[in-house]
Amino acid sequence: MTTRAEDDRTKALRDIGLVYGREVSARLTSKGYFAGMLIMVVLVGGIVLGMSYLGAPKTLHVAACGASSVKPAEALDHIEISSCSGMKAARAAVADEDLDAAMVVDHGKASVLVRGDSDQRAQDVAATMARTWALDKAYKEQGVDSARLAQSLSGSQPRVETIGDSVQGKQIGAAVSLVIVLFMQIIGQGSLIAQGVVEEKSTRIVEVLLSTLTPLRLMIGKVAGIGTAAVLQIVVLVGALVGARALGGGQSSIVPGGAAVVSLLVWFLLSFALFAGLFAAAGSLVSRPEDLQSVMMPVMVLALLPVGVAAAAVNDIDAPWVQVVQYLPPFSGVLIPLQAGVGNISVAQQLSAAAVMLIAVAGCMWMASRIYRASILRIGATVRWRQALAA
């Protein structure tokens, strides 16, 4: 009895392996596969380089003209303070974008020169220097010793304490962009699974295959083969992400780090496993490729819902409803890597969400295999989801 069970297991693995190898070979010899990979690499690389450029620190140039004593005593991060000869030179430098802002003392009055697109930090520094000059002038007129006053105030500066962690909007934008790219990959690869199933059914190849294979083994081999091809593309995309991050200097804090990228990859695999069986089941319901879109619509809507939820969560990623929905499949497939991308979730929380997701994957695979077995050999009219489940 044990020997027979082992033989059955060996035959099952061999059958699945044959279908798996066939699907992987078909993808790796397709020009469209590599063309799609190239497009995704360019897209991901562009997103990361763009975010790196936006997040990289920029040195701002501010000038103090006619009052060098108002320059800050301590160096300011990424702000360079210089001097200029007067109002005319300062206007020309600001207009030509050689300076981001300038504070000019002319005829006993302080003026702040900025452009409409000047960085707010540069404007604030120039305005602070103007106020400092005005205060020094007023103190001298009132006979106040400015040096002693500054010394007295130095020990009374307020202490700034940050409560909680802040999440930058650009950081969230980078994580959302990458999550959406990966979910589009899930939809694209899932559509390939459905198309492959219906093509085999319409050409009657499936009847030949099922003379030696069981429907379940055929479906598992097909899903695993196309899933492997999808993972290879994702590995290349991760390589493109890491390369683009290095090319961008690695200075941007808004591009997800290594731990976030690993989380993104793991949740891609879980989400793909959740939807892959459903796409295969959808393909088994029809006998003609032109009828595929009608039966795929429920699966497509289910796959796109998490993207819409992620877009809504961007407004307040710490909202109570997000903290609940992020544990529910299929929404956890986008919300968990989104939270990980901004460092807003612990490993324990991710493991809890993954456990729930694995239960959902098992349930979807069971339902998909039941639909697949009931409808794959039914040629002719489209089989409805309810009919296949009831069979």
Instruction: Find the count of extended strands (DSSP E, 2+ residues).
Output: 4
Strand/helix succession: HHEEHEEHHHHHHHHHHH
Low-confidence stretches: 162-168
Mean pLDDT figure? 78
Note down, in words, how this protein is organized.
The chain has 391 residues and is mostly helical. Helices cover 68% and strands 6% of the residues. It has helices spanning 2-28, 31-55, 87-95, 120-141, 146-154, 169-202, 205-209, 215-247, 258-284, 292-313, 320-325, 332-341, 347-375, 385-390; strands spanning 60-65, 79-83, 101-106, 109-114. Strands 2-1-3-4 form a four-stranded mixed beta sheet. The chain is elongated. It starts with a helix and ends with a helix.
Short description:
By secondary structure, the protein is mostly helical. It has helices at 2-28, 31-55, 87-95, 120-141, 146-154, 169-202, 205-209, 215-247, 258-284, 292-313, 320-325, 332-341, 347-375, 385-390; strands at 60-65, 79-83, 101-106, 109-114. Strands 2-1-3-4 form a four-stranded mixed sheet.
Indicate the topology.
Layout: H1 2-28, H2 31-55, E1 60-65, E2 79-83, H3 87-95, E3 101-106, E4 109-114, H4 120-141, H5 146-154, H6 169-202, H7 205-209, H8 215-247, H9 258-284, H10 292-313, H11 320-325, H12 332-341, H13 347-375, H14 385-390
Parallel strand pairs: 1-2, 1-3
Antiparallel strand pairs: 3-4
Distinctive features:
elongated, four-stranded mixed beta sheet, 391 residues, mainly alpha, 14 helices
